[in-house]
């Protein structure tokens, strides 16, 4: 059975190779080949899943060793895969949502002349993401980690003829690289500390590293956190995600909502044993998570671009997950659970947004939408269900997973628990506010578009079917997972499980969650539902304007990094020319001057040469005589 | 007679020749002075041959004569060519060999 | 020891030399024939290099194999001594592999000169390809030579054909008129020559010094690397600390100029920028590798103590090279100069790995030499194809090429991604090994060097964005033709190789590891041990790493 693991990755990888190297012959069938291979990968995952369910709880992990990759001295890296419950969860999410989005893209990209290449990139992404979650050591994970970064780069910049898309792609890759430095250093630290970077031995040894090792383990954990911040768009490396919306919408749904951006959560959960042994690092993790969940939510409130509003929301929801993962064993399982349900409803929301854009001539400004519910009923209903799920409406997916995280945050105990829980509750209120705003501006109210130019229409079946499937997930997944805590117990062998001691009962938390939810929805309705939305954005308060500009983070980057960097490199270029090269050129000039002096002796007069010869001969004779005298 | 006197004579002739090369401008005179220096050398060689009692010096003197003859042939030809083109035989006028 | 069945190593160097003569001898009218003859000889050399690689037995005892040894200048103890270790085999294979691609990529580089002066004695094509083959022969010989004097001879001699290749052939894309371009080319060539000659002369003094010391202490002077290493190990030859350091510096200076190491690097951007791109590949991917290779073979093995003494300074210089090269690459306006500065950054990594004195560092550095050769060749040659289409090296003259020539843009991107060490492509393996190897002994330097990977991403992606993406710059860009068959034949195999060595570098590591272990044993250094003994932890068996058990046993 374990031999099937490689097949999971191989199927989309073959697809990518075929589509990218196949040439024009595949233009007409390429998208179906790509979709089929994604579905094939999902089928293999399903087979592996049923097999895994059939085995005893502690015997579910599979291991496949393909070949030795880099053996140099004590450094030993393998191409080897590990499929346990955590990886399985991700594999199902990636291949499942991935297949749906392939299908959606068949319709969405129907008129793009480079569709074949788009599917090639999507398949490449699937392969890299599966490699990331299936790797059995950190170095192989790193390969997948950068692989998804590459796929993300290619897909964000897919419409390369737009300079903004090319810039956004470059920015995403660069910011991610900063995070990758963290992962690199973490792997090096692992190697020097433990002599290996395979998961099993490292995680087993993490707890027993002793007091001497705690500093090292903390450093490793902090570096892993840096990596997670880059990939999962957490503060302070969050700035790329909003720009990444330049990519085609299916890409935003798959990569920048459902799967790739959650890789940071996977990394932290997978390295749980390391974080558990480093309390200081855990504090950093929850801090990052809490700050980002508020940051993303605030940014999401101010954006008029529907995709950017959703991007802010993604940032915020991943903040929840990171915070949960930072709580330790009381949070890991809930982080993953929220990750899965978020995968469903956020992918669904993005696909819905794509569907709206598809019907509205690629308009993204919500101030030019309005009253679309009559024109796009399927989109409206699926989007609406996703909306109810994300705000945590009781009974839908988001309610179960988010509620558990808030509960776990309070259960952390002490002041820290209160701050985290409070932040999470506040985040829930803001989430309700900005999602209601999106909903109202898009589907309700007066139409703010010109009926002569725009003809909103429902999207084709290839697009609506994935939306419907994802809507089902958004509604039922959370409930299903929570029956007898099935999901938590499924993950328990990998993430271990602990129950905290919340200061007040679960009912109180739930009630509080519902109350803040209602407050958020009501506020949004008062502001955007009761009175008409202006078609051009009002100037807004200082905070609104700052939030529109991603809380000025880009301006900071521009001034400090871009301008400062340009200044530095220009100075260096000058120095290279004047100082480094100048030193050498200076020597050359000095030599040239000396030879100029010597050249005067060569005046071309025969008699002067003769005199020099005679003089020279006389000197030689004199020297010879003197030497003999000595 | 002490053969060393011949060496003094050779040194004197050589000095006259060298001074002539350095001082005179006329190429022909310079040329003759060079011949004078060569012959001074020949005289020295022959003297040494006599002093040491072998024939090496005399053989070299013959070589020198042959080389001198060859040199005269080439040298005069060059001087004549320069004289034809520049209408002067002054060595200072022909200073084109500098960079 | 001496396996005299067949002088494989001599043949590997003689073949391109013969090819050079044959190419040069062809009459002016047969210039197409000259190209094919050159290609044929280079391919045959590659075949021979493969034979060497397969005949070489990595597990065999003794540092050198396939050795040949003949007396040459007996009075000075100079011998014609050849021999290869795993590192040399890998680099010979790299050289022999790249030359056919260089020749193919430069197929039309001499054509413009051909038209410039049509007469029967004018044979630039023959000259161009003969010079390339001559460089190949000398580079291969310097990889093979185990006699210091023999090495020095070819190390210096290769400057002559390189000088003519840089100064004589341009890409006509500098934006200036041909007269000024020729002047700039000439000055770049002279700069190249002067820098390298200066390094070489100082090395010559050290070579003579080495001879004097051996003559003094061993009775008969010798240049033989093996003899000197053995004599030092057995205590017959003891160098005074001061002497050893001076000699080391003499050797190192020459190699640091060739490599090039900051601040001796300024000849490289000029030489690479002004020459045609195949020649630029020849400089950075082939000739410069002799410098780093010689550090491993001669500096470390002849002067182990002095190498340890100089390590801190050299590591800092290498670190400066990495960051400095990358930062300057970001600010370049000329595509080829950008790649040249990127190469300076990469050479910093190689030197860092060599002097980290760990098996990962040196193994990584050796792999880096090979991988950097392939990746730079891919990037530079595609850049050359691009430049030859538009006739300009300036980044600002491009934009939106992707739309007109997607294949060209795609291969350019792959070359760029290899340059920024994307995992899955070969350079990643070597760069990571170098970083780990450095980090395990010098953590701070390792961490700072890691920042280099962000800068690498910056200059590659900026270059790609400015040249390939966006709307097409003008009508000329819109009409750029995509890659031709000949160009695909050049780039395709290189990219395939980058992928293969990125996923399965084991053949290369197997080849290199024993040689690295030998070098480290000569220098008397061992890898630092991990701080936490994982083998003491229960449940470790799950990992099932054979090498790991091996380590654990060694630790006991």
TrEMBL record, chain A:
Keyword vocabulary terms for this entry: Membrane, Transmembrane, Transmembrane helix
Name the membrane topology term.
Answer: Multi-pass membrane protein
Keyword Transmembrane helix present in the record's keywords: the answer is yes
Q: Which Pfam families match?
A: Proton_antipo_M (PF00361), Proton_antipo_N (PF00662)
Chain's gene name: nuoL
Enumerate the InterPro entries for this protein: NADHpl_OxRdtase_5_subgr (IPR018393), ND/Mrp_TM (IPR001750), NU5C-like (IPR003945), Proton_antipo_N (IPR001516)
Q: Where is the NADH:quinone oxidoreductase/Mrp antiporter transmembrane domain?
A: 135-420
Q: Does the keyword Transmembrane apply?
A: yes
| Regions that span the bilayer | 33-54, 89-106, 118-135, 141-160, 181-203, 215-237, 249-268, 280-302, 318-337, 380-400, 420-444, 465-484, 504-528, 609-627
- Native organism: Streptomyces catenulae
- Residue ranges of the NADH-Ubiquinone oxidoreductase (complex I) chain 5 N-terminal domain? 69-119
Where found, per UniProt? Endomembrane system; Membrane
Protein name (Swiss-Prot/TrEMBL): NADH-quinone oxidoreductase subunit L
Where does it primarily localize? membrane
Signal sequence span per UniProt?
none
Automatic annotation (TrEMBL), chain B:
Q: Which domain of life is it from?
A: Bacteria
Per its UniProt record, what InterPro entries does this chain match?
Answer: NADH_UbQ_OxRdtase_chain4L/K (IPR001133), NUOK/Mnh_C1-like (IPR039428)
Give the membrane topology, semicolon-separated if more than one. Answer: Multi-pass membrane protein
What EC number(s) are associated with this protein in UniProt?
A: 7.1.1.-
**One MF term from GO for this chain?**
oxidoreductase activity
SUBUNIT field: NDH-1 is composed of 14 different subunits. Subunits NuoA, H, J, K, L, M, N constitute the membrane sector of the complex.
* Official protein name in the record: NADH-quinone oxidoreductase subunit K
From TrEMBL, chain C:
Chief location category: membrane
Principal EC category:
oxidoreductase
Record's keyword annotation contains Coiled coil: no
Q: Where is this region: Disordered?
A: 536-556
User: Which GO terms of the molecular function aspect are on file?
Assistant: NADH dehydrogenase (quinone) (non-electrogenic) activity
Q: Where is the composition biased (Basic residues)?
A: 539-548
Q: What is this protein called?
A: NADH-quinone oxidoreductase subunit M
- Give compartment(s): Endomembrane system; Membrane
